[in-house]
Fold these 4 entries.
Entry 1:
Amino acid sequence: MKILKIQTLRGPNYWSIRRHQLIVMRLDLEELTERYSSDIPGFYKGLTSVLPSLIEHHCSPGVRGGFLSRVERGTLMGHIIEHVALELQQLAGMPVAFGRTRETSTSGIFQVAFEYDNEHAGRYAGRAAVRLCQSIVQTGTYPTEELTQDLEDLKELKAQASLGPSTETIIKEAEAREIPWQQLNARFMIQFGYGCYQKRIQATLSNQTGVLAVELACDKEGTKQILRDAGVPVPRGTVIRYFDELQDAIDEVGGYPIAIKPLDGNHGRGITLDITKWETAATAYEEASNASKTRSVILERFYKGRDHRVLVVNGKMVAVAERVPAHIIGDGQLTIEQLIEKTNRDPRRGDGHDNVLTRIVVDKTVLSMIAEKGCTLESVLPPGEICFLRATANLSTGGSAIDRTDEVHPDNVWLFARIAKIIGLDIAGIDVVTPDISQPLREVDGVIVEVNAAPGFRMHVAPSEGLPRNVAGAVMDMLFPPGQPSRVPILAVTGTNGKTTTTRLLAHIIKQTGLAVGYTTTDGIYIGDHLAEPGDNTGPQSAQLILRDPMVEVAVLECARGGILRAGLGFDTCDVGVVLNVSADHLGLGDIDTPEQMAKVKSVVAEVVMPKGYAVLNADDPLVVQMAERVKAQIAYFTMNPENEIVLKHTESGGLAAVYENGYLSILKGDWTLRIEQAVNVPITMNGRAPFMIANALAACLAAFAQGVKIEHIRAGLSTFIASTSQTPGRMNLFNMGDYHALIDYAHNPASYVALGAFVKNWPGPRIGVIGGPGDRRDEDFVTLGQLAADIFDQIIVKEDDDTRGRERGSAAELISKGVEQILAGVPDPSIRYETILNETEAINTALDQASSGSLVVILPESVNRAIQLIESRNPIQESNNNSHPPSLNSSTASLKPSQV
């Protein structure tokens, strides 16, 4: 077996709309192609011995042990690898369950798709699953040390990708509220929401957290001074910078007991509490100084009481936890060292911050605490006697937390909220020492020790004792108050042909409303009227760029087949999803071999539309109509045929539609008709004689109307959108060259040739075509292009793209010529002339040089910009509104009813 390709999907995709995170492996089973698991000696026994936990996989039988029963009866290796990849992740602490395996049209080649929790771990699991199964096939087992290493590596990958417990808590709350999120590629920031509604966090700092407040909170002495001036009870203390000042400082605060901490520390590093003698104070000073960036140390009077962390979010106390330092309790039998080991065996404890509790590490500080008690690691404590192992109660050093939220005295609740306001933090962690949190601080000599920016949530979300508190809910309430949206409207467009024109027209229409539109197309990413990034940008990364931009108020996203297959959609749901058409293009790529499979790819856009939104579907395309069965949203149809039975039935039941009727682009809703504009007044329709452009315009108008755009804005958009090199480069760009005209269009597949032909064949003069196609299409597709071209043009020049996409130079042109010859062979006296000029620039110049008076030169280029430059170098006549009006065309061959022209 060998892996041919591994892809990572991060959004709704061909395999699943709901399961966004999938690994897809293209796997060649080689010698195992026709071998079922039941035919491989010892395989079942070996697999169940190595991974007995596979008994929990239900698989298609739907019962425990269902998958293993299929292995025992016989199943193909691709299916087994899918389940092994899932189980390896499960064993490494990453719960995943979804998988699919499908054989491709190539014998022995399978697509194995399975869910991942962390994408690097998912890819590793796929490779490890192949290694494991191959080993069992060959030897009957998989070495224990190999499996152990695999699981350790997977756990390490998971740990490396961890965002931290506080961040993950907020993310889970956002997901519960269906607020989208994405990780930004800088400073571990997370964006919630889209476009102009976005909010950001970094750990538990938000974009609303003031920098002055953070700076003040990091200055422990400055914080204490501000609070003291406001009448808040704080410890007596001073700041020193040299060891020689230590004794005077102890005297200044009134002697022992004292606490020493770094001036600018965090996470409890360098803090020593309840110091009662000089030797301990000297050691504590050294530790605090080393932990301080400025080498400055705070020395405070130590106040007896219990340590509490108060969390205030948006001016409201939301949780309080009592923090207990790491400790053990004697039982009269086990040594201190054995008690620590026993404590660490608690399944809630682990390394770092990802677990409810952290393992206790025996270090110099722990040994010092044990020694102060007059004990060693070998000492046995009497039953019930407590030995504290840390002076501080931080969870990161093994401490535990007890929820005390419901016990806080009302005066303290008010005080804590006031403190957060005084410091200026929207999310504040306030450290309080008091004998009794249920009594006002002043009455029990309680004090505010410090105020922290970016406080941890772990102790509140998963306390060792008491009720968990949904503190992340308070953060989300602050970032997105009730009634405030988190998403900008998303209108997505897909289809085989017309995507870019429809996307640009739809964006142009919405601009008429005054909103800032971000949109993606095959020629660039645009924010408003500005090109943000040139090039083909129709994949998920381009969509993410738009949705990350804080200037965007509406997103219009062109979604191409390649991006959906390669990585999934760049968004989880949309308000309007438009599917223009599905035809035989790009077949044979990405294991998509039939129009039906391609329709499934395109239907992803329609299927992710939210229930209150609209899926805009082409009622004239049977493959698109079938998508309605899988759509959860409302349906809106568009059609070029006002008698379309699907649309008539749909509107009779109150449905929404757009129809080309009596020469008008009209909206139908129930039994009323709202006419938008006559096609002859819509520039991109070439005076109403380009049917495919009318269809594109119908789709754009319907999508805008479904989104709530007013008719006057739609009409204004239609009348000002020109098929020019500035607004639609490479899409029906007509140039007046004086004696003749030239047309540039990016038609590159049979369906687009047919659509273009419906316009070109009406041209009253000679028609010259410079034609070709992308090299990664099937042989039969090129032959079809030649056949269609012979039906459209009087003269044909066959050229090839500079990038042959893996084909031998000249082979694509030869196949196109073959198609032309097949048509000419059936004509008694063919008048069509054709030749092959492989170089695109030479082919274009030859056609332009040979153009006769009144002729039309149609250029179907690889490089739109190059073709435009070649034409503009010949100084075309500049028409008003930057568009060349075609001469009066014949209508006898148009694919429209006479009454519609």
Note: Residues 2-161 form one domain.
Entry 2:
Amino acid sequence: MATKKNNQSNTVKDIKYYQKKFWRLFAYSLLGMLAFFLFASWGLFGSMPSFEDLENPDSNLATEIISSDGVVLGKYFKTNRSQLKYSDLPKSLVEALVATEDARFYEHSGIDGRGTLRAVSSFGTNGGASTLTQQLAKQLFHGEGSKFLPFRIVQKIKEWIIAIRLERQYTKNEILAMYCNVYDFGNYSVGVSSAAQTYFSKDPKNLTLDESAILVGMFKNSGLYNPVRNPQGVKNRRNVVLSQMAKAKMISESEKVRLQALPISLKFKLESHREGMATYFREYLRDYMKKWTAENKKPDGSDYDVYKDGLKIYTTIDSRMQRYAEEAVSAHMKNLQQQFFIDMKNNKNAPFVNITKAETDRIMMQAMKNSVRWATLKDMGKSEEEIIKSFDVKAKMTVFTWKGERDTIMTPTDSIRYYKHFLQSGLMSMEPQTGAIKAWVGGINYKYFQYDHVGQGARQVGSTFKPFVYATAIEQLNMSPCDSILDGPFMIHKGRHHVTADWEPRNSDYRYRGMVTLKQALAASINTVSAKLIDRTSPEAVVELTKKLGVKTEIPVQPSIALGAVDITVEDMVAAYSTFANQGVYVKPQFLSRIENKSGEVIYEPIPESHDVLNKDIAFAVIKLLQGVTESGSGVRLRTQGGGSGDNRWTGYPYMFTNPIAGKTGTTQNQSDGWFMGMVPNLVTGVWVGCEDRSARFKSLTYGQGATAALPVWGYFMKKCYADKDLQISKGEFERPKNLSIKVDCYQRPVIVKDTTDTEQNTDEFQL
């Protein structure tokens, strides 16, 4: 009996001993885990995000360029990612995401205990344990996990800590939005906003339930479930998402079946700096932002990074007018280009006209040296002789055509000559009262032709310069549009106004009209009258006024500038003409409204610049002169429907405008440049057309003059603008000053003026 009692005592002792050992081990383990979590939160196992980091995670946000009507024109990015608020997300995408990735998202506080226990007990074979908040923590602060188990355990614990902090810092909706903003969907698209544009060409709020399910399916593995490369896999994954939504009672079974039967339908388009809307303007703005970031610093003194700081650049560009302008340029240039190729068929030195072999060789060599091929081969250590020889070796290439890109085989030399054939164009449209630029088209295709013919390229302006001469004459000589002047032979002798030889300008049609009013003279673009006026005012006075009108290029102090022997940009010409429409007040062109940081704080607002140039009466008198051009001069086709020589190339004709229009066509020597400046009370638009090289041109005035080359772009653009009633483009009269002191209403017999009267004669009178 004693032995039995002793055994029972030992058994009780053993149980107590192991119980004590168990609780001691449990306490040590618990303390160890707590210490481990504590050390991890202190950053002993690697840095942890601070409170400020959680407030402002490093997110590499793309900078957005936004139009005045709220449309994103484009982005600057290294990582194409845009910030979305929860309210921007479609309900279908939020429901699909929660149903598929984290069904208990709204119940847990960052860590799903049930899911974690399930994952641990099944060693990860029965679903993962990561909540959406943990996945966000991983995306924001350390990316993909380590393959080495001890490191992975440390990372997992850090994820838990960060997830809990995120849950404390943000609402559930904010966490969902952040998660949708940071995920990489492939094809340079980070975040739902970029992905929706890339794969479906639409804003997130416009996604269908089917499209939302496709994007949510990509959250599992965007590389594997890429709709472009793996449509069947994406369809299978989308159907899993739809099943999860049905399981969560978010959609009905019948709706699930219907949606699962749908094919994968994409409108895939990579967002690119070289494609999309307003490409030339965006590049001009990018160059401006380089200078802006150098001069404007963050509050802490560091530099802004336009590619990752998520700035929002609000511009004055109107996306609708920009689209109409691009459509007008494309439609007309495609039409006119056909005629240019026809004209060049029998030209052995096409597209160059009347130049020597030596001049041709110089142009071609310069183009070679400016090419990417030349720079690449030079970097490879090739000699100049080897590089030149390579330009005559045929190669596969993709070339631009107006019918789309085409794969072909040709020598690089032939490709240079091919591209020299293409007519280029520049268009800018601006509100004269505010200086707000509403449309900017710098060329025909930015991907293939990067030179900007609005802000970058100054070209000879021809007769569009004449209003500056007339304005000087009205101001200095107290003349009026109704004053008469003799159109007859005229000469400025050697020595007067700095001319080095006798200068005798002639009219383009080689005839004289006798006594004409200034209004008739400008409408018919009479060269002798312009020459007489600059002789009376002096070239210095005209140059001084032109500078006040905002023209920045160097203008020679010579009488020949009266006929347009001056190089000016489209941007400067539009600003100068706008001064007349704005009652004599020059307003500097403005393309920015404001710049905001990623938090929506305004960090820059430009200050408008303006100054008085002419009094209201003189400015209005010039407007009345310019109205004569569209009433009886080379711009009269804006009001007719009868057609004429070359009318098959007048894109959009008949225009049939009945409202007041002030305008001026311009054609330079040998038809190298065609211009049209057109104004209505609240919009001034300038259009230039010509080839890259001035020796590449139309042979005749029929197609080379400004009335055929440039005016149709303006007419087509304005037809589209007037059709859009929301734009509220004026059809009214220009504002007439009270107590007008200059006579502007002249009696005029109806005359028919040929379209070719707007041209300057093809003589050496342009050479200074």
Note: Residues 119-128, 753-768 have pLDDT under 50 and may be disordered.
Entry 3:
Amino acid sequence: MQRPPEPYDLAWYTRRRVLAATVGIGAAAALGGCHASASSSDALQVDFGRTAFFPLVKSKIGVGRALDSDKILDSLRYLDEIRPALYDGELRFPDTDWDSMKPYPIEVRDGQVQVRRNSFLATVQSELLRRRIEVMYQLEGAPKQWEDAAKAKAPRKFPRPTDLRAAADAMGTWAKLYDGHPVSWCMWNEPSHNLTGSPDLASIRQMVDIYEAYAGAIGPKGLFGMASFVPVDAHPRRQLGGRSYLETAVDALRKRRRSDPDLPFDYLTMNNYGEDLSDFADGARNALGGDFNTVPLIQAQFGVFRPGEWEKKGGTALEAARSMAALEKALRIPDLQTFTFSGWLPHMIAFKGGTALRTPLFNALKLYARMPDRRTPVRGGLPDGVGAMASGDEHRSSVLVWNESGESRTIQLELADVPPADGGRTELKVYHIDQRHGSPLEHSGSDFGPSETVRLRGHSRKLSKTVTVAGPGLVYVEVGAVSQHPVLDRDGLSATLVRKHTYADRVTGPKGTTTVRGNAYGCYDAVRAIAYLGAEGDEGTGLCGAEYRDLPQTLDTDVRAELPDHQPASSEALFGIRVDYVLGHGVAKSVLWHGDILDRRRTKPLPWGRRGATADELVHARELDRARVGHARLALALGAHAPSGWARSGARAIISFWMDSTGPGSQARFLLG
């Protein structure tokens, strides 16, 4: 696989399984192959020719596991089958018996700190880099030389280091060994149960002290974020004056950043198990308020069972079905940028002897990764415990149905506007995941593949298919060409990514509750150079961007969008692409390519680059007009509008994609290159 050009940046490795798009109603010729079931049939209607509003930003899927076992190295090859965006690894510095800590990376001799690599982390880094998978290290505790061993137990597993400055400097020296690698650092000393074990201001001050010291010493080239608390506590605390622990901690960080504006705060994680994430996301959003809109939420660790039972119930069809139900809910949170399933071992890969068994959750994620990026609404009644999601585009249509109950269900799928047969190469495939299919820990069989493959011929755009979903279990139905998918399997730009930019349009109401205006979203897939934007309400800013260097003189862009027929009424209305040209001394000029949705009375500035509400130069690109943008191709003449000396200084620019208050249900996808 081609290696990314220098400098390495986390965003270059972003790999999202995006869903956002199409559906309706249908009926037609039966294909046969129906499964018998004692239960009655429920009908699902899916029209792949229609678009449904569905936030995309959460579709960056990751897997995670504490880096405590050398079996992780043996498992990395199986990441190729899922193609996750991110690997989230815990590095627990007090635990010297972990394989990732052998030999221990930090030593102090004669008062001098010495750091060294070990083969475990070197292998993890190189294997993830080769696969373009981002790694996020959650740093726990302090180096053993500054760990108070007497206090390092529950509820204070990671107490304040005995010498914070020395511990931070040692961590910074060690972390700089990985400056040339795609690393997202996350400080994870959770005060609610790891510093003082009680909800008081002292533990919050310790949390922020450690965060500031570690961030300053590491000086990340990539991203640096804060891990929230287990659980994300959104409940008011009497000891904190009626504020939640998370709100109080973010307030303390907010105050610290006033005196140190360069203190990075690139994301906020949530680490929770067995819960609907909505309440946790609401609590985190309320803590961030409207002044941290460039800080996305990341679900860094998730498992569908509560701690204590999660360890015992892994590797089952029930876990896979519940996980897909939880993922579907998480996908609706507009400012949740990453969703990570914990337990790569053994919940997805279970080693039995020398054999790596792929569990139902592994297989479910493998199928989910095949779904196109345009989400399709599903219509029809479903019994309790059964859910579905669908997506489709001009190349592939797919439906995923899960059943959390203990009773099998027969589902009648009525599919309309499926992709036409492509020279006799279009196939329908059906996959089953249940106790006897793709679940080796519940049944002896470990093979997994389509239970049915039908070659489609003719020109019919409607299909009827009956499937039985075991209880518990999943069924995945896909219609598409045999060849690779031109969007899911495309490469990114040849230009070098410097940094990715994100934005969440959060606003705080009079009662202190923060929401995302218009459920707007924006996310950038830097692996394939794709921007996704949307706004559900009349108003709301869908915005994302990325900075590149070594850009071409002309940059081709493929645009697909759904926009309302009428002119938006908001004075903030804008649909377009903005380029901020960077010279050696900073951003020198901004140019906005826009369609016929542009209100020059705009006041809302871009939160990076030149920060203007429009741009220094406006270019009307008719390809972005509402009448043409259903599917359009636009060539951005970067060189023709660049300031003098831009190409000689590295051809560097921030490219931002903007869909602001364009009308209810607006969505767009931009493919660069």
Note: The first helix runs from residue 71 to 75.
Entry 4:
Amino acid sequence: MEHSIFIHILSMLVIAIVAIALLRRLGLPAILAYLLTGVVSGPSGFHWFTQLQMQSVAELGVVLLMFTLGLEFSVPRLWAMRRTVFGLGSTQMLVTAFVAGGIAMLVGQNLVAAVVIGSAIALSSTAIVLKLLNEQNWLRRRHGELSVSVLLFQDLAVVPLLILMPLLANGGTEMSFNSIAWGLLTGILAFLGLMSFGKWILPRIFDEVARSRSNELFVLSTLVVALVTGAFTQWLGLSMALGAFIAGMLLGESQYRRQLEADIRPFRDLLMGLFFISIGMLLDFNLVMQYWWQVILILVGVVLSKILIIYGLLRLVGENVKIALSTAISLGQVGEFSFVLLALAVNYQLLDTEVSTVLVAVAVISMSMAPWLIRHSVDIAKKVSGNKQPSKQDPIEIVLPHSDESDVVLILGYGRVGQTIARFLKTEAVPYMVLDLDPTRVSEARAAGENIHFGDACKMALLKKIGIRQASLVVVTFCEPRQSEECLAVARKLAPDVKILVRTRDDANLHELKEAGATQVIPESLEGSLMLVSQVLYKCGVPLPRIIKRLESERRNHYQYLHGFFSGTETDFTLDLLHAVSLASGASAVGKTVADIPWQALDVELRAVRRKGEEIDPPPPDWIIRRNDILMLVGKPRSIEKAEEYLLQG
């Protein structure tokens, strides 16, 4: 039996992988692949699992999704966009929900079902719209800004809807105003309680966790906080997702926000995939085929009505035709949170399975159409408005100023070196962003207004989130070789063309780091030597341009004259040494040319030859070696010994 379940799980995952790969090639969202997987593996397909079996695990996906949504919730950003968010967003939600709910009641649905249906249809897909607007570089255009405002309010509106859903599930009796008011009051009290907990206790917990420098402990603590707050709100009779949202919001203003999001994302994506698979199991193709004309009719009605409502509202507030229509087309689909509401409604027996199946089918098809509609929204708006050549003053073409997190210098590590670099960049008005793993340092720097975030620079998801692909330069300032190599590998994989400067203590890993993709490696000890040399030469009267030219030559040649030194009592056998070999009259190398000696096979470099007090640096290949010449060799100690034996004895 257990073996059979394992085979079924493996088969389901294989189907999901194949479906995602195929649909991504077609430009369709991965959500559709998960839904298709659910249809194939559910009751309508092979019947490997039922929706009830997937429900508990799938609910965790919603919990983590709400947690990450809370992390993205920014009070300053919300306040800056308050007019469009609370004005346009709330009006769109209320009008769309009222129209959809009213039509639902006209066709025979009760009040509770009408509220659920109206709320589900009023929501749009945040994931799809933001992804496509970003791909088209439209987020800073006017219609992109309006779309983001509406989506932000819709995401916020999910919170009271999550509070409302359990209250509507009262055994089929009529809704009581007192019960709803009590539920909302309970939700407010829970919110205030968790806010107090989050303000005084959560930061201290994560400060201690961060000081441990244990990635496993950080991930585990994040999961526990999300699930414990969810369990607390569920204990109060509310939704688990509500508690997770509040926990995310509490941590969203902390320095740990980006690290938390990077750590939680793999779990969220996996569990959300299972959630959408469970939604797909609700799809009964026989039922969909039975009501196929209703599905098409509702689909056309939903998309057109949402477009018309949003277009009308934007025209009322003075937006021009192109902006209003392109915004409306972008928001015409049904969103992923609609699946959450519909699934909860079925679980609470607020909605018939047949109605839910039809609405899920409508949502799936509308989301399938969304990529094409969004990509062509501006073109459609231009054709409808009859203005094919937009003027230079057209607001839809205006690009807002770059945000703090695009086209910046990314400093990884904020110790003394990182802070020094940041101070000089600030003086020259060069924008920068910093990532550091010391919680105290991050807290102090954030308090001083620095653009710094807590996080592990070796995390691929975190570097991707902070926008390494848009960075103009990446500077790795920490000196631990393994950490630098790991960070460099991840950064180069995410951003193949970005310039990356890496700081090291010495030249031990210089070539390895260059081969790993570093644009330039700056060994601290060698650069210190160069700075001292420049001062010495300057004090000796050497012209400054000549000094600068010589220093740049050393850097271009990978510090050629700074490799290899005479060994002392404490010799580091991992570094190149400089060794002088004096050739007596009977030495094997006497009489040979420099080219006759197999330097490459000996794994050493002939740095210079000293003859009668003069140094030839470097000697030409046809230089004939004579007795009493002193050969200056550079190489590892064992190679030096081998070369000396060859030069003296052959």
Note: DSSP finds 28 helices and ten strands in the chain.
